[in-house]
Amino acid sequence: MTLRLFPDVPAVPHGGDSFTSLGNGWPVESLAEGAWLLRGFAIGAAQTLWREIERVIKEAPLRQMSTPGGQKMSVRTTSCGEVGWVSDRKGYRYAACDPESTCPWPALPESFLHLAQTAATEAGYAGFVPDSCLINRYDPGTRMSLHQDKDERDFAAPIVSVSLGFDAIFLFGGLRRNDRPSRTRLYHGDVVVWGGPARLRFHGVLPIASSADGPHPLIGPHRFNLTLRKAT
Ligand SMILES: O=C(O)CCC(=O)C(=O)O
Q1: d(Cα 133, Cα 83) in Å, to the nearest integer?
Q2: Would you say residue 27 lies in a domain?
Q3: Sign of CA dihedral 193, 163, 148, 231
Q4: What is the dihedral of CA 52, 53, 56, 61, to 10 degrees?
Q5: Atom 10 of ligand 1 has which residue's CA nearest to it?
Q6: Which residues line ligand 1 (CB under 6 A)?
């Protein structure tokens, strides 16, 4: 028997002819060698994910962290899991406790773990066990500049990145900062997975536009991103 935790996941996601299938049959679109876009993969789980995001944010509120250079980041962030990503004057790192509350970060919700593991498997990275989830809230006008994810101890594990709410233009570059990035529009429910030869590629997000249709019906006037990683 196949247990479907998220029965309302659409059978066929939107997309063109550029799809292939690697895992259990979800069509994936290549962004680069080792990097895959799973259109609509999180749509069926979105309400559950959103409930858990709201719960995490109550316990560990979103905040604008500072870069080591002293500038405020444009997005608001928080974390859950065994460790959380933090940035301040001392640098970028993972910490077991939220520096604002000095308490451990909220636990990684089961729904986050399940989604990350099933998406990673569909992208050819079976056995992914994330221990940290960074939650980014983008308000209209906010962005994330090109960067590499390299504060983790283990680059063998992939990154799983979930988009909720407003659309975004995702930049996916090369292994050097100056490599010209591709631009991909990400919609509510899309998941991007990258690992292997793509694990250290530069990536970022262009400034978020507000939607002409008003706030997103579930997420409100924002884009949320969940980035699941194995940090320790
Ligand atoms: O918001 C996104 O899609 C990407 C987030 C990201 O690059 C990060 O948190 O490192």
Answers
A1: 8
A2: yes
A3: negative
A4: -160
A5: 149
A6: 134, 136, 144, 149, 161, 170, 203, 205, 225, 227
- Here the tokens at position 231 are 């940090």
- Determine the average pLDDT of the residues in 13-33: 75
Mutational test site, ligand 1, from 85, 205, 208, 228, max ligand atoms within 8 Å of CB: 205
Closest alpha carbon to 231 in 101, 91, 123, 82: 82
How far away, in angstroms, is 102 Cα from ligand 1 center?
25
- Tell me the pLDDT tens digit for each residue of 216-232: 999 999 999 999 999 99
Domain count, the chain: 1
Rounded Cα gap, residues 97 and 81, in angstroms: 10
AA identity, residue 101: S
Residue 1 CA to ligand 1 centre (angstroms): 36
CATH of the domain at 118: 2.60.120.590
- Per the structure, the complete domain to which residue 155 belongs is given by 23-229
Helix (H, G, I), strand (E, B) or coil at 169: strand
Tens digits of residue pLDDT in 38-58: 999 999 999 999 999 999 999
> Where is average pLDDT lowest: 15-19, 107-111, 122-126?
15-19
**Identity at 82, one-letter amino acid code:** E
pTM, rounded to two decimals: 0.91
CB 41 within 8 A of CB 26: yes
Residue 70, amino acid: G
Please name the residue whose Cα sits nearest to atom 4 of ligand 1: 204
Residue 1 lies in a domain: no
